[in-house]
Amino acid sequence: MPKRIAAFGEVMMRLQVPGVELLSQSSVLNYSFSGTGVNIASALSRFGHAGYLVTRLPNGPLGDAAAAYLRKLGIGADFVQRGGSYLGMYFLENGFGVRPSRVTYTNRLESSFNTAPEGTYDWEGIAASVDAAHFCGITLAMNDGVRGHMLAMAQAVKKRGGAVVFDCNYRPSLWGERGYLAARPHYERMLELADIVLMNEKDAMLTLGMNTEKETREDRLKALIPAVADKFAIRVIAGTHRDIHADNSHSLRGFIYKGGQFAFSRRLTFSVHDRIGAGDAFASGIIHGELEGFPPERSVNFAAAAGMLAHTVAGDTPMASEAEVFRAIDSRIGDVER
Amino acid sequence: MPKRIAAFGEVMMRLQVPGVELLSQSSVLNYSFSGTGVNIASALSRFGHAGYLVTRLPNGPLGDAAAAYLRKLGIGADFVQRGGSYLGMYFLENGFGVRPSRVTYTNRLESSFNTAPEGTYDWEGIAASVDAAHFCGITLAMNDGVRGHMLAMAQAVKKRGGAVVFDCNYRPSLWGERGYLAARPHYERMLELADIVLMNEKDAMLTLGMNTEKETREDRLKALIPAVADKFAIRVIAGTHRDIHADNSHSLRGFIYKGGQFAFSRRLTFSVHDRIGAGDAFASGIIHGELEGFPPERSVNFAAAAGMLAHTVAGDTPMASEAEVFRAIDSRIGDVER
Amino acid sequence: MPKRIAAFGEVMMRLQVPGVELLSQSSVLNYSFSGTGVNIASALSRFGHAGYLVTRLPNGPLGDAAAAYLRKLGIGADFVQRGGSYLGMYFLENGFGVRPSRVTYTNRLESSFNTAPEGTYDWEGIAASVDAAHFCGITLAMNDGVRGHMLAMAQAVKKRGGAVVFDCNYRPSLWGERGYLAARPHYERMLELADIVLMNEKDAMLTLGMNTEKETREDRLKALIPAVADKFAIRVIAGTHRDIHADNSHSLRGFIYKGGQFAFSRRLTFSVHDRIGAGDAFASGIIHGELEGFPPERSVNFAAAAGMLAHTVAGDTPMASEAEVFRAIDSRIGDVER
Amino acid sequence: MPKRIAAFGEVMMRLQVPGVELLSQSSVLNYSFSGTGVNIASALSRFGHAGYLVTRLPNGPLGDAAAAYLRKLGIGADFVQRGGSYLGMYFLENGFGVRPSRVTYTNRLESSFNTAPEGTYDWEGIAASVDAAHFCGITLAMNDGVRGHMLAMAQAVKKRGGAVVFDCNYRPSLWGERGYLAARPHYERMLELADIVLMNEKDAMLTLGMNTEKETREDRLKALIPAVADKFAIRVIAGTHRDIHADNSHSLRGFIYKGGQFAFSRRLTFSVHDRIGAGDAFASGIIHGELEGFPPERSVNFAAAAGMLAHTVAGDTPMASEAEVFRAIDSRIGDVER
Amino acid sequence: MPKRIAAFGEVMMRLQVPGVELLSQSSVLNYSFSGTGVNIASALSRFGHAGYLVTRLPNGPLGDAAAAYLRKLGIGADFVQRGGSYLGMYFLENGFGVRPSRVTYTNRLESSFNTAPEGTYDWEGIAASVDAAHFCGITLAMNDGVRGHMLAMAQAVKKRGGAVVFDCNYRPSLWGERGYLAARPHYERMLELADIVLMNEKDAMLTLGMNTEKETREDRLKALIPAVADKFAIRVIAGTHRDIHADNSHSLRGFIYKGGQFAFSRRLTFSVHDRIGAGDAFASGIIHGELEGFPPERSVNFAAAAGMLAHTVAGDTPMASEAEVFRAIDSRIGDVER
Amino acid sequence: MPKRIAAFGEVMMRLQVPGVELLSQSSVLNYSFSGTGVNIASALSRFGHAGYLVTRLPNGPLGDAAAAYLRKLGIGADFVQRGGSYLGMYFLENGFGVRPSRVTYTNRLESSFNTAPEGTYDWEGIAASVDAAHFCGITLAMNDGVRGHMLAMAQAVKKRGGAVVFDCNYRPSLWGERGYLAARPHYERMLELADIVLMNEKDAMLTLGMNTEKETREDRLKALIPAVADKFAIRVIAGTHRDIHADNSHSLRGFIYKGGQFAFSRRLTFSVHDRIGAGDAFASGIIHGELEGFPPERSVNFAAAAGMLAHTVAGDTPMASEAEVFRAIDSRIGDVER
């Protein structure tokens, strides 16, 4: 049965140089609108749910364009507010091979979303309308106003019995000099509210400051994730391990920890067209599995395949339907379909 | 010495989303015109022959555009009729890595080609003008009218001493529920007329319903192809085995069966830009070899290299000259030529 | 107060050659999705109402792309059905100066919309949800099945007290040899149900077969429109007179006939970028005026300005907000706004 | 009845900056292939004749591209030779309003056409195959080798009874310092061979050095054209007077002088998209009229309308069919055709 | 003799939707970099002088792209500082006919230029290197820091004997609620330093609060400009009167007031491709005239023609050479140049 | 400390078919301007030096566009002359996989650069302004005039104490039938003047006619390079060995021979986007290392990484900064940077 999910997050304008030229070589940009919340709400709509975005867009042509784009993605607009002056933006120059992609941000702290005053959103109304809510660590890094919104919404949803999903998504460049130390209390507050958390052992060690004497990635994961689940009383923790190979292909292996048990997905290896947003596709797969009551192994394989497919489409936002994800779970590369 | 070849087949408008976007993401299409007959006639023109297409195009801007495109490809227009209302079309969304390409057809059964009434074509005039004629299993799947045209043309050409080429090219989606059973009698009728046939062991097993206890692809081929050649008195049978690798490269190995002997090409492995139409390039290579009197081994290596090169160009239609194919037979990847 | 309006109509894929090249010169198409119903529902959404489309789209990539495009335009998807196989399409080659634009249709009679079986739509549910419904003479020309849908929906809406809007929109090429005679009974049936009708004196004379001895366009209008309103008990009739000038600019003057009185808009003269869909913008303006209770003169000036602005945007579909239309009513061409 | 016409002339690669940017602003070029002979042969093919080009193209990718483009335009390739090293090229920057378009040539004197050695073409074979031949003053300006080819072909065609058409087309920049004096003997030699000549009174005065005391353009025309016709025994002389207006529209009025009588076309005024090649469209109209035996007035109106339409299409080469030209003769600007 | 001019001003990234689509319709932007100072420095470089820009750009890809673009325009980079975080941006949606163009700014107050701390620029070094300096009222509207830079640079240049040019360029949207009143003291301070001023009677009335009982534009000009020149001891005042016509063409008439005398240019009427930046082209023409010692009438005609040409090129920045401007002074629209 | 380097060489217009289409398939070209000297001067500017180009460009739009492009690349224009008529050009069709890229040249011998008369350049002024000069074997292949310029400049720089860099860069297609024999004396003359030489063992064997009995590439290198250094008294010799793999990736290993010692870079393996100009990036790295006094091992690793990165950017010209090259020396492929 389709569920209703609201993601709280900023809409960013993505301005991408086509091909592999640099900003100093080209004169053309392709633009779209994205953000973690956008990706989550859109992916879940594509899986058959009603995905809403809770955000604030400016009036005027840029806000209109963003709103139209959200609708095109199938995202419900009921909780999209208009007001403020600016839209966050980022410029993307595609890398090639050994040359990495580059992202350059404009001043997102002045955006409509990041300057939304108290009272902008109707938390009770939102909480009454949804089965689950999604939050992310990028938003948590913005400012006290936005963090206040996050807590208010998470508490309202929790009180109404909705599931709270939190993706740790720590971005070092956003937290300034004190970094993990500055972030820790904010993360802990969200983890206390969360039912489903996206993270891996690195988040436990760096953001939460937990320790283990294990040395391999997998051993650390197995040591720390149960400890996090215990400490914060989290029902489900899921995440991925990624490897990047010399030929630019990536490998992804998902895990889910639930009911005291780990389940792992197959290790998927694949060529990468657009890496941005693929983590959100994995998260959407986990949320879908939980909303639909999949057994953990099915959830994590679904999520990993959704994450893999998100690397193969243009733009930040996952485009695969549930059927396409299932087909990809056992897929081998095939001949053209006609 | 250049020969004259007429291919009978539909012209399709190919509408391709550029890059790797989906139809629901993009707003631009690149268009061209293709079809098995188009590919064969064009490829043979590029090898130095006079390639003609026997088809029917609508009047009006779409028909004009298709006709101009055929001329650009070097295809003789003497047997292109105008009439009817519509052009068959297909939309192509490029895949990437594990995500397959998607082809979506419009209603081709209403096309000018598929609604051509009896008397549209002058079979005697065509037969008197050509050394060989090419037909394909896709056309065979359309309707009784088109099948009638095929038989009439094949018979006329055969009577005049021209070579009849038939490419089995079975497409499951075109034959409906009864599938192979529905197709079999039509295939058998064409095989009885054919001098040169493109197929492999799968066609023998599935379309023709033949059996073998062999288990490998190659053993089955060696068991069944001679049986087909005997049963239908076919002078030359040729075809390929294709493997698709995890890194999206393909391998191709061609065979030719003639005079009771098999010859095989080198197994070629290569990156793929556009897979559609590559089978027609192989067929063109076999036809060219036969028309020029190449020894079988030379024919099959030429055909395999022609097929390989067709994967590296944009669009359905092979673009390589005879010299370029010969160069590719022993080619290794080289530095830029200047 | 915002109202809810449902337009019944086909979604067409518009495939436009960019610039002024012909299909036989170019290799690129820009695509979008439109149709009279699309234009009406989108324009009314932009004026602040909830605009719905009642239509049927195929499954698969083309249907998905059309559905995404409708959402982007702000059209409510509640009554969009999926099923059938094909989407109607048209190719547009832009004219220049004395060279007219050319439109080439594909076989729209096989479209999902035009082959929708009885029972496809839930007329009672739709009628219960809307304040008004819009129909158009293009749809009326399709086939008996679609005409049956139209009547069923118009009757259901009327029974529930909703307003029925009918745009005569006679297209000669769609009605075959018997033309107006074939169309007349179908038009009369719709006019009997209609509360608001879009037409002018030519429709009265040609489609309805009415006569007048008047000689000028305006005199004929004043003679015939009241007669139509009387005969079919129509509350509001509105329409335009268009003049096309030697420098490719157009002039438009709107009229509205209501309560036994005519009101006329200013005669607007303007440069034209894209003429297709401008009539729908005028109709939307009239509907908006009626829904909002504008006095007739305000309605017709609003509608004419909306129609004028629709000539200045790319694509079939009007993009102006209510505020932009009001600003255009007294607009003179101004300097850049910044 | 369709006729066969061979035009002798160089194929130029046209490299056009899209939009109105300058070469120092853009990074993109659209390319096509044109030339007076190309335009004439293509236009006459579109009018239903068999148009051939007599020219020489280099081997290699540029020559292949040019040859494919000629075929696309419907030009017969029987007399297209391959050899030499280079293709003539010109860069086109579109003007806007008061800013004129700019054309920059590459070194065309080294082109395959302009370096074709004696014996390149089979004049007897060509002359035996055609009803008429077209030559132009641009070609005459190249070098002695090309002028030798022109005379040889014109003489061969004349001897076989074919019609010789000569378009004076004087380009000051091509004749160097001595200008008209250098050109005169070459022009006179062509005029002695010509049956149909395209020119106006300016050519008579400047190139041929003839005098008149008349002062208006029309009086001079009426005085000088009959004198030219007499002196060189020319059957038909035709040409145009062009006016360029402040709003960038052009007016064109064609004349034809035949059998001692002048006939004039309507004066046509129209917006201009691409002015290059429009003179060739007028010439093609005159040739078509003569080949079809039109009365002079019909010929000149047809030619003027063909010339007008050529200003409204992209590229140098006329694209109108005979039916479209006839429709344009009495055309007013109309609404979109659908 | 070429002179050295430094313009002080912000570099803005211009992000323009191609064609006439809206931001909510398109997915592509063309970008360039401009600003009043950019336009002035570039135009004067094209007239043969050494044009420098005094500005501050961020490090990173956007700053690199802006710097490369300035170099491409021929602007000297000696006084371009790097630092700060952001670049000012504006989005441009082209209007069509009655629909005006729309400009949407991002938050330019956070730009590298507008946050440059004291000590960023070496005023003495700059003043020692230049013959003239250019400032503009847009910059004056930013903040106290930037206004401080302006005054410091103007004073340094004046002390060294360089000419100070000030373009009033009042933009209502930048001055907030108190508008002209807030701006007046800042304007007066710049006028006291200025040798050459760009303005017209509206600036005198609105920004400076001066009065006249005259009623026509021209009478007011003649009454107020001498008064301004007297009050602030300004050597040269120049400006334009613009009219916008119903067919979207513009008329421009320039004036110059110098030595107690007015001189006026011809009234130029022309089609408009890109209006932004055309005022800077006029200013550049006046500066060029003054630097070269043109008589006033020659200066003002040169400036008006430069302004006119700037409307006919793509982008904000004038592209005409001195020779092209002189040619345009008496130009009529001509045929293509080849 | 930044140094001043002047590269002597031709500017070519590069006209590239976008994507992987052939010239006979596409209608669009991307253009830029490059050449060995352009690449060297631009790369060294990006490393912090002042890079100048000594060349000659035509007047007119193509020369203006080339000059603007050089400025955009950061190349000093002080020694760029204007004159002559033409610009050298080449067309580039991208290969794919087994299909190689194709380069087609226009007639560059008529270019402004290759027809520059004696006295075009001020050798003394140039030599007085620079610390080093760069020359290349491609230029050496042009004609006696250009070779005379090369020698004059190299001698002037050497006399003033500047370093002379010579890149052997032998292109077989440029030297005609006598090939290496024709080239040898010209190469020897340049080697006698050179301080730093780019070459490998193949140049020694083929161009210089030296012999060795060694069989492997590396053994031959170690045998011949010291011999060349001795014979011509060359301070530094550097170069690369390249391998091209079946999956189209390349491997590059650089060497440097200085003070009687060889140093080798790591063997770098990487995907290739645009191979043209990568050799110039390596050369720029070696020059940078020498100008900065890097130890040989650091120089050769820097140069190899610079060469590797140049394969990953669009266009001929290296775009990496010194910091980016250093980062790439130990780089592994990483995740997106944000």
From TrEMBL, chains A, B, C, D, E, F:
InterPro entries: Carb_kinase_PfkB-like (IPR052700), PfkB_dom (IPR011611), Ribokinase-like (IPR029056). The keyword Cell inner membrane does not apply. Keywords: Kinase, Transferase. The keyword Kinase applies. Residues 4-318 form the Carbohydrate kinase PfkB domain. One of its GO terms (molecular function) is kinase activity. PANTHER family: 2-DEHYDRO-3-DEOXYGLUCONOKINASE_2-DEHYDRO-3-DEOXYGALACTONOKINASE (PTHR43320:SF2), SUGAR KINASE (PTHR43320). Belongs to the carbohydrate kinase PfkB family. This is Sugar kinase.
